[in-house]
Amino acid sequence: MAELARPTEAALPEDPLELFAAWLGDAEASGMTDPNAMTLATAGDGGRPSARTVLLRGFSDEGFRFFTNRTSLKGRQLGENPRAQLLFFWREIGRQILIHGNVDQLSDEESDAYFESRARESRIGAWASEQGSVIESREELIGRVEEAERRFEGEDVPRPPHWGGYLVSPQAIEFWQAGEFRLHDRFVYRRSDGGQWVTERLSP
Questions:
Q1: b vs e for 41-60, b when ≥16 Cβ sit within 10 Å of the residue's Cβ?
Q2: Is 184 left (phi over 0), alpha (psi -120 to 50) or beta?
Q3: C-alpha radius of gyration, the chain, whole number
Q4: Helix (H) / strand (E) containing 123
Q5: Lowest-pLDDT range, 9-13, 58-62, 105-109?
């Protein structure tokens, strides 16, 4: 893949979502696996940090969307402290993006619409798995899957009440591009009190 254009102050768009879309497009064009994979970092009210990989399932001016089991550790932590950080790391193209923001649950309608787009097997799995809970064996998990299959045999599989989407509304977005001898390019967009984006270059 040809060397990607290096960001400069003069070339930065006013809206960071425009730059995010361009960089995500470059990641997708590179042929890498799961360019929409992102690390989600959360912390509960006790301050314990936790991180895991989830998949971006859409973004807009409102923010970045993902879906998960809300009774999982991340779901419980977001219930206690509705703030999070997202990290996209695209090693193949030497770029990463950090997003910090406030988090809200998506509506039932939005969660239902995405759940219905998933494969039936994945919808069955959402009923069978109590994400993060202790189980005795894989056989127990398979048994729960079979039980859910019998329960919904011949029927559409509805969204479980404990499963749904989240929206991360960005307050800061940092763009990082690798440079020789660790002289990387780093730019951060911060949301001002008036709701406008302010851009700053950061030392690498």
A1: bbbbeeeeeeeeebebebbe
A2: beta
A3: 19
A4: helix 120-128
A5: 9-13
202 phi/psi in degrees, rounded to 5: -110, 145
Q: φ, ψ for residue 150 (rounded to 5)?
A: -65, -40
Cα separation, 69 vs 54, whole angstroms: 11
Check: CB of residue 6 under 8 Å from CB of residue 185: yes
Please report which confidence band the pLDDT of residue 125 belongs to, taking 50, 70 and 90 as the band edges: very high
In contact, 65 and 166? CB cutoff 8 Å: yes
Mean pLDDT of all residues in 123-151: 90
| pTM exceeding the 0.85 threshold for the entire prediction | yes
Both tokens of 47, joined, read 């301050």
Taking alpha carbons only, the member of 89, 22, 77 closest to residue 50 is: 77
Distance of CA 31 to the CA centre of its chain: 20
User: What is the set of domains in the chain, with CATH numbers?
Assistant: 16-106+168-202 (2.30.110.10)
Q: Do 73 and 135 touch, CB atoms closer than 8 A?
A: no
Cα separation, 157 vs 132, whole angstroms? 22
> Does residue 151 sit in helix, strand or coil?
helix
Element holding 65 (H helix, E strand): strand 63-69
Contact 191, 179 (CB under 8 A): no
Label the pairing between strands 95-105 and 83-90. antiparallel
Integer Cα distance of 66 and 64 in angstroms: 7
Q: Which residues are catalytic?
A: 182
